[in-house]
Amino acid sequence: MGQVHNEILQKRVEQANMADYSRAVDEFRWEDVERNFSWYETGKVNMAHEAVDRHVLEGRGAATALIYSDAVREERYTFGDLRERSNKFGNVLRKYGIGKGDRVFIFMPRTPELYFSLLGILKTGAVAGPLFEAFMETAVKDRLEDSGAVALVTTPELLHRVKREQLPGLRHIFLVGGEVSEDSGLLDYGTEMAAASAELEPEWLSLDDGLIMHYTSGSTGKPKGIYHVQRAMIQHYYTGQVVLDLRPDDVYWCTADPGWVTGTSYGIFAPWLNGVANVVRGGRFSPQDWYKTIERFGVTVWYSAPTAFRMLMGAGKETLEGIDLSSLRHVLSVGEPLNPEVVRWGDKIYHQRIHDTWWMTETGAQLICNYPGMDIKPGSMGRPLPGIEAAILDDRGNVLPPYAMGNLAIRTPWPSMMGKVWNNPAKYEEYFRIAGWYISGDSAYMDEDGYFWFQGRIDDVINSSGERIGPFEVESKLVEHPAVAEAGVIGKPDVMRGEIIKAFISLRDGYSPTTELKEEIAAFVKAGLSAHAAPREIEFKDKLPKTRSGKIMRRVLKAWELHLPEGDLSTIED
Ligand code: PRX
Which of 41, 240, 377, 529 is the most buried (most CB within 10 A)? Predict the structure, then answer.
């Protein structure tokens, strides 16, 4: 595995290449993928074993696994190095009594230590919970509290955003870097790692045991903890081959942060299950920096997102001067609609098609994709992978014919389907309200060739720069500000970011609607939640449209914004 492609899978890729799609679909068996894992024989399951240890045990320990760089560091780690570091951290966790089923969160920037920690957590059978480094106090607290995290790995710079006194269940905090004083109640990651043994027998699990949790937003309520199980590795491995097209000598770069699902499923699991060198670039996005990263490390397979491509497109030709991107063999995109003009621009700049892929936090891995060899229709998300059945359903669950718009749904189950919504079985059930199907919340249509075309969200979830934002979380923060009486939040279409967050606010008596107040309110959300959740636009209104039960009607706010008819107002307050 990893080194040599499994023959059966190789055949699948060729079938896709030959566009013999229906044959590939008919002949597809998940079991053919499962055969590639050591647990298929042994029954002993552990993601970190398959993604790291197995390569070492099979003689590939000296192969490069991680190529890390930022403005000051540049480091390479082999699979052997990853094994040693993750074993050590696994032993550190065990020393503090942490093991199977415990939730251990990570809140730190992308550095090698993040990856060692995450793999170490998995070795102990604990469930990893990576948090995006830009999260602020409330966002961090909500997630640690809901998940019942017992331990956290973080850095001195981020520690002040962790409200320890409000999190009694959080027993241990490991600090990466900096000084740890005896009475701080903190543990020093470096000291602990130095003292730990590099030998460890992983916790052997079943395919139904926990793997990872990612919090994501819906249109109502606080963010939901989407809990994935070990079985997901089957699909991570498979899509790594047939969609990412990973081959043994590839240098692969996924630009997503592990705080989001793309940054783990495709920034950790898919490349390492396939034994491929994985580039991680720390620091912020800049067109020049990204192109230099591709050139410097000879990136062959590159997975990024539409907003980034649009920004690269906007950065102009100068950014490409003196840059050699000829190493690129395969380019992919995820997270938001990929405009046809960006695809066509990619044809010219990267000398290949940007391959759009569709999936969600809840789905755990790619489901509808453009993959190597198939005819790409710019603007379409592609076709369901062999092994996946997708359809457009009406609200009662009837399958609709081509070109009818409706609910994009996936036939259940598939290997990487979420295992539960943490602490919230009712929310979980909502996704499966139509028997035999997962309802995505996206609307789409299918054309006569079986290609799917994204149309929008059915709920009020906002997608800004590929980041999924729940209006409720933003509204809840807004009304904590002393000046805000009521707030309603919508996504406003934006050429670069897809959507931006716009807040409609009515003020409490005694506050005047000034520009300074707008800035202050935006800064307040930024400081509490994160920069990407802060409204870029605020509009003050005397009154917001509400239902008689007091719910703000975002639909009407959106209609105001887009100058559309307000629709059915029969439930409005007055
Ligand atoms: O609306 C769809 C959009 O992003 C949502 C999922 O967001 P998240 O859970 O954050 O996962 C993002 C990365 C897996 C979907 O419900 N989305 C994702 N991919 C696409 C997309 N919209 C259009 N085209 C896509 N390729």
Answer: 240
Query: Model confidence at 95, in pLDDT bands (50, 70, 90)?
Result: very high
Best substitution site from 216, 332, 359 to test ligand 1's pocket, by max atoms within 8 Å of Cβ?
Answer: 359
Please tell me the predicted confidence (pLDDT) of residue 11.
Answer: 53
454 lines ligand 1 (CB under 6 A): yes
Residue nearest to atom 26 of ligand 1 (CA): 358
Tell the residue number behind the tokens 């590929």, with chain if given: 466
For residues 503 and 396, is the Cβ–Cβ distance under 8 A?
A: no
Of 218, 134, 220, nearest to 468 (Cα)? 218
| Strands ordered across the beta sheet of 437-446 | 390-393, 406-411, 437-446, 452-457
Backbone φ, ψ for residue 154 (5° rounding): -145, -175
* ipTM tops 0.90: yes
Atom of ligand 1 nearest to the CA of 256: 13
Distance, in Å, from the CA atom of 364 to the CA atom of 189, rounded to the nearest integer, reads 30
275, 283, 274, 339: which is closest to 311 by C-alpha? 339
Q: What is the 3-state secondary structure (H, E, C) of 466-503?
A: CEEECHHHHHHHHCCCCCEEEEEEEEEEECCCEEEEEE
Residues contacting 43, CB < 8 A, separation 6+? none
> If pLDDT is split at 50, 70 and 90, which confidence band does 2 have?
very low
Alpha carbon separation from 176 to 70, 193, 327, 335, 485 (Å, rounded): 17, 10, 35, 30, 41
- φ/ψ (deg, to 5) at 532: -75, -15
pTM reported for the whole predicted model: 0.94
Q: What's the full length of the chain, in residues? A: 574
Render pLDDT for 425-460 as a digit per residue (tens, 0 to 9): 999 999 999 999 999 999 999 999 999 999 999 999
DSSP at 433: -
User: What percent of the chain is helix, strand and coil (3-state, nearest 5)?
Assistant: 35, 25, 40
Phi, psi for 505 (deg, rounded to 5): -135, 135
Shortest-distance Cα residue to atom 5 of ligand 1 = 360
Distance 357 CA to ligand 1 centre (A): 9
